[in-house]
Write a structure and sequence with these properties.
Blueprint: H1 18-25, H2 35-45, H3 58-66, H4 69-83, H5 87-120, E1 125-130, E2 133-138, E3 147-150, E4 159-171, H6 173-176, E5 182-183, E6 201-202, E7 207-219, H7 225-235, H8 242-271, H9 276-290, H10 295-313, E8 315-317, H11 321-327, E9 331-335, H12 336-340, E10 346-352, E11 355-358, H13 367-376, E12 383-384, E13 396-397, H14 400-411, E14 426-430, E15 435-440, E16 443-448, H15 450-455, E17 457-462, E18 465-468, H16 471-486, E19 490-498, E20 512-521, H17 528-537, E21 541-545, H18 550-559, E22 569-571, H19 572-577, H20 580-586, E23 592-594, H21 598-610, E24 615-619, H22 625-630, E25 633-637, H23 642-647, E26 650-652, H24 658-697, H25 706-716, H26 719-725, H27 748-776, H28 779-801, H29 817-830, H30 832-835, H31 837-843, H32 850-882, H33 890-894
Parallel strand pairs: 9-21, 9-24, 17-20, 21-23, 22-23, 24-25, 25-26
Antiparallel strand pairs: 1-2, 1-3, 3-7, 4-5, 4-6, 4-7, 8-26, 10-11, 10-20, 12-13, 14-15, 15-16, 16-19, 17-18, 19-20
Length: 901
């Protein structure tokens, strides 16, 4: 019976020769595994698949929403109400809880279903050699020891050791962050070689860009490098969001305040001689009505509206709380490849002895440059799926470098596809000599590393003639090229020589004539610089985390305006030697980390969080997944890997990074509206408390009965809360600095405003109570007038809190139609217990005379005007002072177009 194969016993497959690897795997490198042996290994090692994360089922989503601190306060209030016989109050609270949580569950479940559909579109197939014949199988059936057959466009189905490479190039950006395709070889490398530099290894999740080859599978499923990253991601605990932290503190504060107030009111009632049962029922009604039960639906509505606005702008929000978290982001850790850049190589310039020539098709190329570009397209291995379409829409497969040359020729008016067939013998690329060649007619075209080919060149093309490559001419070419390389561009030399009489070999490449040097680059996305500038103006730091080399990363950082001075740029090797304390000291100035590993990304995110930052991480590759999961806000590209999407809170469906700042803005709008709704509910709920405490301290009867207290709550809640939740954001939010962790839900100026509101209401309503009682001499009439006063005060108050940066009363006061409708409905509800005879006995009310209505309306209006004045003095002035400075240009830097409403 065959012995069990344990690939983990060979820790350094990259250090073994091809024959040694085949022997260790127990496989014939020419014929592959036998079918029977492959089936046995499938049973031994299991399917070649990564474990899927546990889905957020309905039960899990339900639990997450029930454990919301505000929900817990409401549940306790409902239980107490039910215990003392207030069945109606308990039922109302229960309906609020059930409707709100049901709505939240539906929204989050729909988001999870949407992401599942995105992930289901991915299907991997693999070609393997078994019993000496090629077979196409599901990637799940690949086993250790299988011999992968690799061609352009194929995905690598498992970790594998290369044993045959014919100009094999693999794109590893999704795994390592390296933007350039990596040339692969069958030659072993040193055991201590870093993963990103193991040129004889292939990894699950990467893609063959060009060339062909064969590789022996050494690890499958969770044992692959990708599997290790996924395991690291799964083990990372998602942090509590800033909103959850603030709501937890708010719930604790409200609970403590209500208990203290309840105890005080109960003591006053007992001192007044009220029966204990009556006193207890009154206190419970007062506390139940003071619990902001409308806050939970308001949170759900506000975040849902923001989710839909962001979706219209091009992003799918997977977790509702992530909307507000993004608004609180103080640091964005952004990936370079495919995030800052387009992730696609582009030939920008052709350097000849005549000068530098842009390859944009705008200015016609001179003859030497045009001939060089035409020669560069010979022998390309790129295939185009839709050649009949315009070249801007071509879907290509093959090397990113060769694709860049093909598209450059198409932009310049050539027909590069017609030239692909006129080739003869080829010299495949190999990393040992760093060039490739193709014979066409009586000449051989050679493409490769500029330094290597210039050393083998004797002539250069100048004005249609081949002239000697003197030291002066070589220095001229090298000087221009080195300047370009310092700017983050790659050089690709193009040369020609007479065709050799036999199959070309590397040693035959001598006496070259330089036709030109192409300068290529993975271009920066056009919106990136504006997005980063807008983020800085909004007080958000940006750190680039990339797997690219330091020179490339630094050049890109300069291009987009990121700092590159002392201590601003570091590479992964240096980072690895730093202690946590040293890295924490460096982080405030750090802007670029090159050659970063997944573990280092995660370490940076976690250290930033310990420093009190709210971190957003963007990325599209497997290497981004652990950091995406650990950050408060993980943002994945829609075109990114499935692992990145699974780990993210937000998926950018359109890959447009202007959407990030739109999402930040919507997150800040959401928090702004949430704070407005909370101010409104707390201010109104404490209005009754101020009145009751004031009356009891002065020795007067209770100004409101228990049913009246609860009815005022009905008027205040529901319709008005809904309208306030749909309030359009005040666009100056991007002038504010991000909300820091640990700060209270209400900043000091809001706390001052709330205190002012409580004082104003007490100073207006308590004297009004005394005046009404003295004037009418009837407690029932007085209580009815106070019911109207406090109810109308709730209606008027909502128009005050809808704007906190500008005056609310006056022009633009009625622009929110939902709020207007809510105000009309709530105003109508005020008359229900007064005008319906059957309810007058229940609510202890009576019809009022016109002058009494006028007095109640005037009292409510006076209170609201004073509250508006306090807002202007305390809150609006604060925002105007805080809004001065460079950050006022934040919105202008983004886009002239207003966000979707």
């Amino acid at each position: 019976m065959p012995t069990r194969l344990d690939t983990a016993q060979v820790p350094a497959w990259h250090a073994l020769g091809a024959a040694e690897a085949a022997q260790a795997l127990g496989v014939d490198a020419e014929r592959g595994l036998a079918h029977a042996e492959a089936e046995r290994r499938r049973g031994e090692h299991g399917p070649n698949a990564l474990p899927r994360p546990p889905r957020h089922g309905v039960g899990r989503i339900l639990y997450g929403n029930l454990s919301n601190p505000i929900a817990l306060v409401l549940i306790c209030a409902a239980a107490v109400s039910l215990a003392v016989g207030h069945v109606v109050d308990a039922a109302v609270l229960a309906v609020v809880i059930v409707l709100n949580i049901g709505f939240a569950v539906i929204q989050e479940y729909k988001a999870d279903q949407a992401i599942e559909k995105i992930l289901a579109l991915l299907d991997y197939r693999a070609r393997v050699l078994r019993d000496g014949r090629e077979h196409e199988i599901s990637s799940a059936d690949v086993v250790p020891g299988d011999l992968l057959v690799l061609k352009p466009g194929m995905k690598v189905a498992a970790d594998a050791r290369v044993i045959v490479s014919a100009e094999l190039h693999v794109g590893e950006a999704a795994l390592t962050g390296e933007s350039d395709p990596v040339a692969k070889t069958a030659d072993p490398v040193a055991a201590e070689t870093a993963m990103a530099d193991r040129v004889d290894m292939l990894y699950l999740g990467t893609t063959v860009d060009a060339g062909t080859g064969r590789a022996l599978v050494v690890a499958t499923g969770s044992r692959t490098e990708l599997g290790r990253i996924v395991a690291l991601t799964r083990a990372t605990r998602e942090p509590q969001t800033p909103l959850q932290e603030k709501l937890t503190r708010l719930a604790r504060w409200l609970t403590l305040a209500l208990l203290v107030i309840g105890a005080g009111v109960f003591a006053l009632l007992q001192y007044r001689g009220e029966p204990p049962v009556t006193a207890f029922v009154t206190v419970v009604a007062l506390i139940a009505s003071s619990v902001p039960e409308g806050l939970l639906p308001a949170i759900t509505i506000i975040l849902t509206v923001a989710m839909r606005r962001i979706l219209k702008a091009g992003s799918l929000v997977r977790r509702m709380a992530a909307v507000e978290s993004l608004g609180a982001a103080s640091v964005i850790c952004i990936d370079k490849t495919g995030t800052i850049t387009e992730g696609k190589m582009r030939a920008r310039t052709l350097l000849t002895m005549d000068g530098e020539h842009a390859l944009d098709g705008v200015v016609p190329l001179p003859p030497d440059a045009r001939d060089a570009l035409a020669a560069a397209t010979l022998g390309l291995s790129v295939t185009v799926d839709n050649p009949a379409d315009p070249h801007e829409q071509w879907r290509t497969k093959g090397s990113a470098t060769e694709t860049a040359l093909l598209l450059a020729a198409a932009r310049c008016g050539m027909d590069p596809l017609a030239r692909a067939a006129r080739i003869g013998a080829e010299l495949p690329f190999d990393s040992s000599y760093k060039f490739a060649g193709v014979v066409t007619g009586n000449r051989m075209i050679v493409r490769g590393a500029p330094d290597i080919l210039l050393a083998r060149a004797t002539h250069v093309r100048e004005e249609g003639q081949d002239v000697p490559l003197t030291d002066a001419r070589k220095a001229r070419l090298q000087g221009t090229m080195l300047a370009a390389l310092g700017a983050g561009l790659r050089g690709l030399a193009l040369c020609e020589m007479p065709a050799p009489v036999r199959a070309p070999k590397a040693d035959d490449v001598r006496g070259l004539t330089v036709l030109g040097i192409f300068l290529l680059q993975d271009p920066v996305r056009p919106e990136t610089k504006a997005m980063l500038s807008g983020a800085a103006a909004a007080g958000i730091r940006t750190i680039m985390l990339t797997g690219d080399h330091r020179v490339t990363a630094e050049a890109v950082a300069r291009e987009i305006g990121m700092p590159t001075g002392k201590n601003a740029v570091v590479d992964g090797a240096t980072l690895e030697r730093l202690s946590d304390d040293a890295l924490r000291a460096m982080l405030p100035k750090l802007s670029v980390v090159a050659r970063v590993t997944p573990a280092q990304k995660l370490r940076i995110v976690q250290l930033l969080q310990k420093m009190g930052e709210t971190v957003a991480v963007t990325g599209d590759g497997v290497n981004d997944a652990p950091a995406l999961n650990a950050a408060e806000i993980g943002i994945a590209l829609g075109s990114g890997t499935d692992v990145a999407k699974e780990s993210a809170d937000i998926v950018l469906l359109d890959d447009n990074f202007r959407t990030i700042m739109r999402s930040v803005e919507e997150g800040r709008f959401a928090f702004q509206n949430l704070r407005k709704a909370t101010v409104y509910m707390i201010a109104d709920d404490f209005a009754e408390i101020s009145l009751i405490i004031g009356a009891l301290l002065l020795g007067f009867p209770l100004p409101l009965t228990t049913p009246q207290i609860l009815w005022i709550n009905v008027v205040e809640s529901g319709f008005l809360n809904f309208g306030l939740a749909l309030e359009a954001g005040e666009e100056a939010v991007l002038r504010d600095a991000p909300r820091r962790r640990g700060r209270p839900f209400f900043s000091p100026h809001y706390q001052q405003w709330l205190a002012a509101i409580a004082i104003i209401i007490a100073l207006v309503t308590v004297p009004a109570y005394l005046i009404f009682l003295t004037w009418t001499g009837d407690l029932v009439v007085t209580r009815t007038m106070l019911l109207v006063t406090l109810s109308l005060q709730s209606v008027f108050m909502v128009f005050v809190v809808r704007k906190v940066r500008t005056p609310s009363l006056g022009r633009g006061m009625f622009t929110n139609r939902w709020l207007n409708m809510g105000a009309v409905v709530s105003s109508a509800l005020i008359g229900v217990p007064i005008f319906i005879p059957q309810l007058q006995g229940v609510f202890s009310t009576t019809p009022l005379a016109p002058v009494q209505w006028f007095a109640a309306v005037l009292t409510a209006a006076i209170a609201v005007v004073l509250i508006e004045a306090a807002k202007m003095v305390i809150v609006v002035r604060h925002h105007r002072q805080a809004g001065r400075g460079p950050s006022t240009a934040a919105r202008d830097r983004l886009d002239a177009k207003a966000p979707v409403r």
